[in-house]
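Thread: quick sanity check before group meeting

JM: Hey all, I'm pulling together slides for Thursday and realized we never actually wrote out the predicted structure for the chain we discussed last week. Dropping the sequence here so it's in one place. If anyone has concerns about the input, flag it before I start.
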Amino acid sequence: MAYWLFKSEPDAWSWDQQVARGAAGEEWNGVRNYQARNNMRAMAVGDLGFFYHSNVGKAVVGIVEVCATSHPDSTTDDPRWDCVDIRAVRPLKRPVTLDEAKAEPRLAKMALVTNTRLSVQPVTEAEWAVICELGGLG
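JM (edit): ok, ran it. Output follows.
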């Protein structure tokens, strides 16, 4: 299993909206960055990810699961763009802010800290454990 982080502006797509999609999940569409797309192409069903509110809140707020592997993005006819489907698994007991992540030495190399603009990022197993701990799930 691999771990990931999915960023969304909560006024465009929020954790509550993701939860409301239920077990069917939602297509993580609209990504127009090759590195983020390639990350989605590497995902497998069952991989877990953090759901991160960007711009407003700037915090990891929940855990999602990949429920459909990479497929054409339905929001474009351009064959270059793929996406995965994700479903909500559980909220963190408390959000983990970007400032907290930046202040945590164990997360110094995390993509969230070093490349804050990438919308779909890999997360190492060690980083996953630290964020879960900080979020009250450890």
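AS: nice. The mean pLDDT is 97. Residues 3-134 form a domain with the ph1033 like fold fold (CATH 3.10.590.10).
JM: adding both to the slides.
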